[in-house]
UniProtKB/TrEMBL annotation:
Signal peptide span: 1-27
Protein name: ATP synthase CF1 alpha subunit
Protein's membrane topology: Multi-pass membrane protein
Family indicated by similarity: Belongs to the ATPase C chain family.
Amino acid sequence: MNPLISAASVIAAGLVVGLASIGPGVGQGTAAGQAVEGIARQPKAEGKIRGYNREVKVVNTCTVLQVGDGIARIHGLDEVMAWELVEFEERTIGIALNLESNNVGFVLMGDGLMIKEGSSVKATGRIAQIPVSEAYLGRVINALAKPIDGRGEIAASESRLIESPAPGIISRRSVYEPLQTGLIAIDSMIPVGRG
């Protein structure tokens, strides 16, 4: 049995025994008697202890060394991956691009006006992804895949990595039609095809 639960049971039982030893009608009108009765009527501590969430999370946090022009330099992320997402204090997202020995360079996916030197940053452990669905066809979105055409949110059921591997040469459709750029120098030196 959990020692905390058994301790709570002993304390609750001691309060009940203590109240019973006072006897009926003794101290009921006094402030002390009302306080003791109030303690006895509280929900049992055992139920509160059983409902306690014991989940432990390891959160990798670090601090901002420098920020400017959409780039933030961060110190303290030892196990960051290339293209990993981080979240700054004011909810701006950043993508890890420049992995150095003592700091990491992040590109900010937002204005980042509230990010200052010494601000806290939390690693998400996720690689940069973008939501995908048929609902994106014909819509105008920004770099974060948020709609900017005023037609409401876009429902997406799945997401894919930004840097996904290209399909193999066998599974691709063959190039069957020449594509003219309109510049003779390019069209004569580099054949561009559609397919």
